[in-house]
């Protein structure tokens, strides 16, 4: 069965430093997709980055990168050069069967990131 | 290009009432989905659609119906509202690139309170 685990309920980081948010997953499906989202205090959901299970390279989007370690079943989000505006809730999610039209997605419980000035 | 729009932004219902949450996207995306978010939790998938005329159940479909008659619209119907359906509802659409990469777009959410 699908499972997503985010073990860090809250994280603090100093402005301009890098931070890693942990995410581990469990699936028996060889085809899956991994997602990270940001939810500011305003409540909107913002898609950040996607990694497919067959992708050879780690996904990057600006200051966001996904450290994909397939054998360890981890998909950690790295935010470089943290900014005050990065303070938010971050969710990791997984979808099985991503390459075969599957669409059922499950979310982790989230990590709240606080960026200190 | 409005992206994903949702209406209403906020709704109060009495137990047993029915209503439809509207969702529309103008990006011609095939994939659309509905999620609910309860306080302090991540999103849970209610229903999804991989194209016009095709829908399927997600993790928590009970008490909800969907239809997808056009690519643009994906309404969510609450058949008989219950207090347990008090939540924030998000609609999303996805673009699947030829590389297999995916980009998701979310609506602003609908906050529903069932008394």
Features:
A: mainly beta; 6-stranded mixed beta sheet; 4-stranded antiparallel beta sheet; B: 115 residues; mainly beta; globular
Secondary-structure element order of chain B, N to C: EEEEEEEEEEE
Overall structural class of chain A, as computed from helix and strand content, comes to mainly beta
The average pLDDT score of chain B comes to 93
Specify the biggest β-sheet of chain A. 6 strands, mixed
N-to-C series of helices and strands of chain A: EEEEEEEEEEEE
Assess the beta-strand content of chain B as a share of residues. Answer: over 45%
**What percent of the residues of chain A sit in helical stretches (DSSP H or I)?**
under 10%
Strand content of chain A: over 45%
Q: Specify the overall morphology of chain B.
A: globular
Largest interface by Cβ-Cβ < 8 Å: A-B, 25 and 24 residues
Number of helices of chain A: 0
Biggest pleated-sheet summary of chain B: 7 strands, mixed
Give the assembly state of these chains.
heterodimer
Explained architecture:
The complex is a heterodimer of chains A (117) and B (115). Chain A has no helices and 12 strands. Chain A is mostly beta strands and 117 residues long. In chain A, the strands form 3 sheets. In chain A, strands 2, 5, 6, 10, 11 and 12 form a 6-stranded mixed sheet that branches. In chain A, strands 3-9-8-7 form a 4-stranded antiparallel sheet, with no helix packed on it. Chain A has a two-stranded antiparallel ribbon with strand order 1-4. In chain A, strand 10 and strand 11 form a beta hairpin. Chain A starts with a strand and ends with a strand. The mean pLDDT of chain A is 92. By secondary structure, chain B is mainly beta. Helices cover 0% and strands 53% of the residues of chain B. In chain B, strands 2, 4, 5, 6, 9, 10 and 11 form a 7-stranded mixed sheet that branches. The mean pLDDT of chain B is 93. At the A-B interface, strand 6 and strand 11 of A face strand 5, strand 9 and strand 10 of B.
